[in-house]
């Protein structure tokens, strides 16, 4: 509060030391690439809502400042402004000194200390001006308050208008909405005749009303998000319950298997012991026979060795033996409002499948094999030439044939409606839909793209020179417009289409382009190169290792909300499609899953693959559109 009073009471030069965000004197003034300066703590608060991108958009001019891993902490301190702030505080003697300073009279030219404030004149006044107010009939109805009451906070003087630097006696009580500056009435007449002029008080009242509405909306959104967090925690409990049930099922199956195996073990031990007894009996019989023969031999020898019996011949005896022997086992994710329920449903759908009794296998968990499932196949009313995500459950389809021109919005249930936000009598080739409902469209055999606002009015026209092929479009997660035209480059425009921000050179002719949340560019050559190629680039044109298909196979890529890359391999010769999921490893693509092949009808080589949500894809070719469920 003391800082606010300091700003109000300080000289007009201090206005250049005020942060445009917090409206206080700069604290650790930090400069952006564009040259605008803000408090470091204000930039940190502003950056908290943009953690998913690697740059900061200036709140004043919208120019981009790249951020390092330390984000705002690595931005440079504005040494010049910081010095001015120190000088300002030293000159004012600190906040307490400013509170004690006497404001000068603004009603006359003598610059005496002000003793009162006239609310009617909107001026600080000295003793002499106060006497004039008391004795002249001209000031009879003016409302006067003392400076002591103002300083002690007993009364409020309201808003004091700044004097015009050109017309010294005029208050800057108007606001030019075109120039975004405050002006006086004479300035309006001289230099702002045809501009949109608002009364300063009305403008501030309107701004305060907007802030109040936003404050209410923030409170409502905060309550909504807190309720959603509560719901997520409830879903977490449901997930834990489902997982505990799954664990209990596995343990129960384990215990059953252990009991069965222990029973089998006992049976085997008994069988082995029985065999052992039989072998012992057989050996004992052999041993007994040999003992008997020895006895006979000994008897015979005794007999043979008898002198009285003379010499006898005896027979020789022999014996034989036998031996035998042996046994082997094993065991799976945030987000917004619907994702938590989806996760819970997936958890509850998991079940335990006991193993076959004939083998030593405890069983398996259902749904553990990733796969794709065709939810819906839709016959299109014409040949598809362009496609983009319209919502989490629908796409915009662009038709290129003369008998089926226009753009349709088609959802997963098969519902279809015409897209009417743009002119109908034009042949379009591709479309990109922005988050606010604005659209960017390219036209047949043209090198132009047009940006339309949600109400259908044209906002901008983008001219792209190059190969002469029509333009393919997409938007980045930060709402930039991405353009390719079968040349060796990608064009990146700001969301309005008025500024070319980047031109990214590519190693191969690029026909389709997508972007990750961190700004990486994923390009597809489609059927412009044989075989097809997919490559990942950063904004400076550095590339990872290209993913190249076999001969006569074309590649179409899509990036989902989690920066995972799906690539559809379209086999021209065998007319089949295989979709694979890749993870980004820097600028390289690392294959994660090759999904099961889907039964699809390919109309021609030109195809489109888009990600609608982390578990839903759309694939179009010719006159066919497929919505595909991803089961991970």
Protein model, in words:
The protein is α+β, with helices and mostly antiparallel strands and 632 residues long. Helix content is 28%, strand content 28%. It contains 9 helices and 36 strands. Strand 18 and strand 19 form a beta hairpin. Helix 1 crosses helix 4 and helix 3 crosses helix 4. The two termini are 55 Å apart.
Residue share in β-strands: 25-35%
| Total count of strands | 36
Number of helices: 9
Mean pLDDT: 78
**Largest sheet, spatial ordering of strands:** 13-36-35-34
Helix coverage percent of residues? 25-40%
Secondary structure category: alpha+beta
CATH homologous superfamily classification of the largest domain: TolB, C-terminal domain
CATH architecture of the largest domain: 6 Propeller
What is the fold named in CATH at topology level of the largest domain? Neuraminidase
Cα-atom radius of gyration: 43 Å
Largest sheet: 4 strands, antiparallel
Name of the CATH first level of the largest domain: Mainly Beta
Given as residue ranges, the uncertain stretches (5+ residues, pLDDT < 50) are 1-13, 94-100, 308-337
Number of structurally distinct domains: 3
SSE order and pairing:
Layout (H helix, E strand, L loop, with lengths): L1 H8 L19 E3 L5 E3 H8 L7 E3 L6 E3 L12 H14 L1 H7 L15 E3 L4 E3 L1 H9 L8 E3 H5 L22 E3 L4 E3 L1 H7 L5 E3 H105 L32 H13 L2 E3 L8 E3 L5 E9 L4 E8 L2 E6 L6 E6 L4 E3 L9 E6 L5 E5 L4 E5 L5 E6 L8 E4 L5 E4 L4 E5 L6 E6 L6 E4 L5 E4 L8 E5 L9 E2 L4 E7 L5 E7 L4 E10 L2 E7 L12 E7 L2 E6 L2 E8 L1
Antiparallel strand pairs: 1-2, 3-4, 5-6, 5-7, 8-9, 8-10, 11-12, 13-36, 14-15, 15-16, 16-17, 18-19, 19-20, 20-21, 22-23, 23-24, 24-25, 26-27, 27-28, 28-29, 30-31, 31-32, 32-33, 34-35, 35-36
